[in-house]
Write a structure and sequence with these properties.
about 425 residues, alpha+beta, eight-stranded mixed β-sheet, five-stranded mixed β-sheet, 14 helices, binds histidyl-adenosine monophosphate
Length: about 425
């Protein structure tokens, strides 16, 4: 026997029993998105490498270390998408969806990051992303957060914390950046290799360092909130006012800077303490400069994405039953002669929109009934013999087994499921 080939590390198979909770999450999300007028968009899993370098930023963990990049057979530099915002903006510009229009878009699909796999962190993971274009009002930022909060309610998810911050306007951020560089240069002996590298190109990311040795020097760094421009301050206040009015609880975290460079003003993250170190389940913010930066006309934009694996994990922890799609009828056959008729009957029942699973194994009645039970069907039924009688057996109640004429079987099943014949 040759050795079995295994899946790529950090890339998961999702098996039918697991997918019930994925389905529940996805249908709740679709429902919430529709309630806010968002429409689905689909774009490729592969884009030109340059798109991500230009949008996410050259000096970010994602672009520096985590992208699955390769040269294709024609020598083009391509990358498996590490996130969806860049591709969504690219598609929006390319198809003229963004100029002078309001677009509310969402997408669902796999993303790829070459991170060290651990619980809640995978190399292929899934996001639902939400992007709104053409709206500069702070109330939009707030509405995005309300959308996510509504989804948590629909899923009965509790214990999520909202962290929020404002990164200010590009100009205010540039001035703040100078202050930071001056401060960190004065403490250069206390920085680690990563931070030293970031010092000139992306000093804000030093604030996000997870290295405990840097905690003190970071905590004394100039505070972003105190360096905000007036307009950003007012914008942030209006975002918070809507959250306050809606009773959404938040924590202002002045060190929340996010790992992608395209954000301006509002950024936020929903975190949980139930998943260990991979605590962020949803994150996003405003990115008013990105559309223009990628070659479109200046367009305000904001959005967020949530990680499906982490949310499914939370559903599992609270024993959510998920959403299964059991068949209505398990149609078995314990005598070879009845097989053709059984299949024809199954087709007729499906014509009535009943969901029917057939058992063509010709195993013992007992083993077929066991499988019938496992299938989740409400009833099992079978033909006793060709042109003989038929039997209906309830699988979910103690109702007595019912023997009837074959000609009556369809009517009886249709009645059970209240379908018209
Ligand atoms: P992000 O913070 O990189 O943002 O990812 C969003 C979410 O995806 C995270 O909060 C987490 O739940 C999930 N996630 C990220 N990496 C992994 C991983 N390796 N394994 C499992 N789950 C993961 C973005 O991607 C932005 N595009 C969000 C956005 C949309 N901002 C504006 N619009």
């Amino acid at each position: 026997m040759s050795h079995a080939i295994q899946a790529v590390r950090g890339m998961n198979d999702l098996l039918p029993d697991q997918l019930t909770r994925w389905r529940r999450l996805e249908s709740a999300a679709r429902h919430a998105l529709a309630a806010y007028g968002y429409r689905e968009i689909r774009f490729p899993l592969v884009e030109k490498t340059e798109l991500f370098a230009r949008s996410i930023g050259d000096v970010t963990d994602i672009v520096e270390k985590e992208m699955y990049s390769f040269e294709d057979k024609s020598g083009e530099r391509l990358t498996l998408r590490p996130e969806g915002t860049a591709g969504c903006v690219r598609a929006g510009i390319e198809h003229g969806l963004l100029h002078n229009q309001v677009q509310r878009l969402w997408y669902l699909g796999p993303m790829f990051r070459h991170e060290r796999p651990q619980k809640g962190r995978y190399r292929q993971f899934h996001q639902i992303g939400v992007e709104a274009f053409g709206l500069a009002a702070p109330e939009l930022d707030a509405e995005l957060i309300l959308l996510s909060a509504r989804l948590w309610r629909a899923l009965n998810l509790s214990g999520l914390t909202l962290e929020i911050n404002s990164l200010g306007s590009p100009a205010a951020r540039a001035a703040y950046r100078e202050k930071l560089v001056t401060y960190f240069r004065a403490h250069v002996d206390r920085l680690d290799a990563d931070s030293l590298r970031r010092l000139e190109k992306n000093p804000l990311r030093i604030l996000d360092s997870k290295n405990p040795a840097l905690a003190e020097v970071v905590s004394k760094a100039p505070n972003l909130q105190e360096n905000l421009d007036e307009e950003s301050r007012a914008h942030f206040a209006r975002v918070l006012a809507v959250l306050d009015a809606q009773g959404v609880v938040y924590r202002i975290n002045p060190r929340l800077v996010r790992g992608l460079d395209y954000y301006t003003r509002t950024v936020f993250e929903w975190t949980t303490d139930r998943l260990g170190s991979q605590s962020a389940v949803c994150a996003g913010g405003r990115y008013d400069g990105l559309v223009e930066h990628l070659g479109g006309r200046a367009t305000p934009a904001a959005g967020f994405a949530f990680g499906l694996e982490r949310l499914v994990e939370l559903l599992e922890l609270q024993n959510d039953p998920g959403e299964s799609e059991p068949v209505d009828v398990y149609l078995l056959a314990h005598e070879a002669g009845t097989l053709p008729e059984t299949l024809l009957l199954a087709e007729k029942l499906r014509d009535l929109s009943l969901r029917v699973e057939t058992d063509v194994s010709l195993g013992s009645l007992k083993s077929q009934l066991k499988r019938a039970d496992k299938s989740g069907a409400a009833v099992a039924a079978w033909l006793e013999a060709p042109a003989g009688r038929a039997v209906i057996k309830s699988l979910r109640s103690d109702a007595a087994q019912q023997t009837l004429e074959q000609g009556e079987l369809m009517g009886a099943l249709a009645l059970t499921f209240s379908k018209k014949i």
